[in-house]
Write a structure and sequence with these properties.
InterPro entries: Isoprenoid_synthase_dom_sf. 68% of the residues lie in helices and 2% in strands.
């Protein structure tokens, strides 16, 4: 997460070409951690190299291969993101407007809620569900799993309704800025919808059954592993979730 945060900070300030330079720099540092970084290179390369030197001491060869593959997919995807960002020219005072800040916060809240609801099954099975919002709601409100998911679903609908209402209430900053703002807000919407599609269309949370689950909306809970790595405080789940 620390490396992700730093990488995000660097790439937020560049266009697609700059993001490509950073992507190649970071991947070279990870794939060649015992090679010194070039003189005058941005500190990101050395940060990535030192991160990986520590990571390989506590991860298996298989885990290392998986990380390199998925992290490479991420850093090269950021190139497209940076290229898209370069097409928008929204002034700082517009982004600082309370309406824009609210839209960003609501989009992030939607992402967290959606991700936790979709990831709950594998997290509870592996014993890692203690920090999942589903478990938090079950314990905070004293309800079972079905009721917690119903509460979260209703609350998520409220978040989306507030997002749409806030969008309609944005003021005008002139034709040129309004155009860029509209594109920005539209992409926030893509982000909200995208995590929903990604969670069901990939095998990350539901294996090969994601599209089937999308149709009938029923998930069979996985059995808990016998020896989880951690033992969080967890409410007792029901056998099936609708």
């Amino acid at each position: 997460m620390a490396l992700f945060f730093i990488y995000d900070e660097f790439t937020d300030k560049v266009d697609g070409d700059g993001a490509r330079v950073y992507a190649e720099m970071v991947m070279d540092a990870i794939e060649n951690p015992y090679k010194g970084r070039p003189q005058g290179e941005p500190k990101l390369g050395e940060i990535a190299r030192q991160f990986w030197l520590r990571a390989i001491k506590v991860s298996s060869p298989a885990a290392q291969r998986r990380f390199i593959k998925t992290f490479a997919e991420y850093v090269y995807a950021v190139i497209d993101e940076a290229s898209d960002q370069a097409g928008l020219d929204i002034p700082d005072e517009v982004m600082a407007h309370h309406g824009m800040a609210s839209l960003c916060a609501l989009a992030a809240e939607s992402l967290v809620l959606t991700n936790d609801m979709y990831s709950y099954n594998i997290e509870q099975a592996s014993g890692h569900g203690g920090h999942n919002i589903v478990t938090v709601v079950m314990n905070e409100k004293g309800v079972n799993l079905d009721s917690a998911l119903k509460w979260l679903g209703d609350y998520h609908e409220e978040v989306l309704a507030r997002f749409q209402a806030q969008h309609r209430m944005l003021p005008s900053w002139g034709p040129a800025v309004d155009r860029d703002v509209e594109i920005f807000v539209e992409r926030l919407g893509y982000w909200i919808r995208g995590i929903d599609s990604w969670s069901l269309e990939t095998e990350r949370y539901f294996g090969t059954k994601g599209l089937e689950i999308q149709k009938h909306r029923v998930v069979t809970l996985l059995q808990k592993v016998k020896k989880p790595n951690v033992t969080p405080m967890m409410a007792q789940p029901s056998a099936q979730v609708h």
